[in-house]
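User: I'm preparing a small set of examples for a lab meeting where we compare how different chains pack in three dimensions. I only have the primary sequence for this one, and I'd like the structure in token form so I can line it up with the others. Please keep the answer compact; I'll paste it straight into my notes.
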Amino acid sequence: MYVLDVADKADSVVLRMQCTDLSDEALRSPQFQVLKQKLLSTVQSEQQGGVGLASPQIGISRNVIAVCRTDKEGEPYEVYPNIKIVSFVGDKVEGPEGCLSVPPYRGMVKRYQEIEISYKDIETLETKNETIKGYAAVIFQHECDHLNGVLYTDRADTVYYNSSWDEERKEFKDKGLYDKPQWMK
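Assistant: Understood. Below is the structure token output for the 185-residue chain.
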């Protein structure tokens, strides 16, 4: 799917919106299954190469993210509806971040290295709590920010142009894989 880009004014409006939670009925719907698959296939696609994606990045202002669980064996991608960060632990550590919606820039952002999250389990519809550490915690914070209309550039101490992005993505840009679909224009 097309990932919204801050360089497009209409996209930027959607990226800055506050997302709403999904009802249990919505989580059981075929539409949610489609959303889940679109999030996963988009973030894992060769042309994106991302480690996380929030639903507003594909134009849907609902509280759901897909994250690469770098802290689990096999680094699976998982989907988290109605996610909230419950607590932050320890001190913030500065590290580099980028975003599929803010190409081709990167920035240095301070994030907590341990967080506690709560979310709706897709199978049971029960609220679950989990502690996340390390790089995975950084990914969760970045994606949860998207749900609140916050971009990493809002939190970055510095933002810089990533010249390697153009080279990495040239083939996909030449094929029109980054172009906004007609129906979204």
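A couple of notes for your slides: The radius of gyration is 16 Å. The beta strands are 52-54, 64-68, 77-81, 84-98, 105-120, 127-133, 158-161.

User: Perfect, thanks.
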